[in-house]
Amino acid sequence: MDERKLKILAAVVDEYVRTGEPVGSKSISKLENINVSSATIRNDMAALEQLGYLEQPHTSAGRVPTFKGYRLYIDELMTPHDIPDEEKIRLDEMLGDRNTPEELLVQNAATALTEITQCAAVVTNAVPRFSVISKVEVIPTGKRLYVILLITSSGNIKNKACRLEIDLSHEQLDFFTHYIEENLSGVSVDELSEEMLDKMVAAVSAYMVSLSPLVKGICELSEDLRQQELTVSGSEKLLSCDELDKMEVVKFIEHKDGLSELLENAFSGIQVKFGAENDSFAIGNSSLIVSKYRKGGKEAGSLGIIGPMRVDYKKIIPYVEYLTQKISALMDSDEDDIINAPDEFQAP
User: Which domains, from first to last, does the chain contain?
Assistant: First the structure.
């Protein structure tokens, strides 16, 4: 891969992203930074096709990038756009400030991304990872029927109805409430291991077997809290995109398991993943651009977009990076830590 072929590949990607049409050698030869003949460009495009970076949809058509071509373009060739200062101000206003609840902060960022990119936005919620249990209540609601109310420090509320074999006396209910508060109050959601909860079941059962359904109910609520909360907004953007298979989009909307797995395994920094190279991702001709946001120096969740493979990476990647940097800054407690996102893009 010499410099000229790399320059031609970058030009093909830029032109295809701009027009949506297969790119021919004549179009590339008219560009200012390409100073070779159409014949030379044709030869180089043919070589790029043999290497797997370009493909020809029809024999008489020009060429389009493959996901391998996009990958090389993103990693090594593209020059990301700078976000204008006035646009940064608008984004900051859309996000909110440090008094904005974290969940709303991330939701606002997703809304901004959908508006800017006209793609679907994907978000994982930071609440479960950094919450501690602040209160557990057991509320009698009927004959042998009790509702467990579990509240976290971030305001997340879970509840579950449990039916017992007997009605509990005030003394029994007080024992259970005291025991649960003593063992769970202030405990991080991340620390709620199966082993810890099993020990609690055994301890409560030793006092009174009839109480074990309540502990098991708390176990189930704890499991819910530990689950990654994944939301996709703007799904209609995917359905209206002619470049994506409608049935694959519907399948993706109904079952997001593949996306959850991709996000869970993503590394820090900007990540770009293509449906064509991930069997677990339902939408074939798609791309996922995502970045982690942080709280207190730890990864707290992910924010990004899902769209067709032919998106403007030079524009979108800086926006994803900027918004995740701002979310991270606003989530930190020290006001001095609120900084602007870096202007320079770090290649994944």
Answer: 3-77 (1.10.10.10), 85-125+229-337 (3.30.450.40), 129-226 (3.30.390.60)
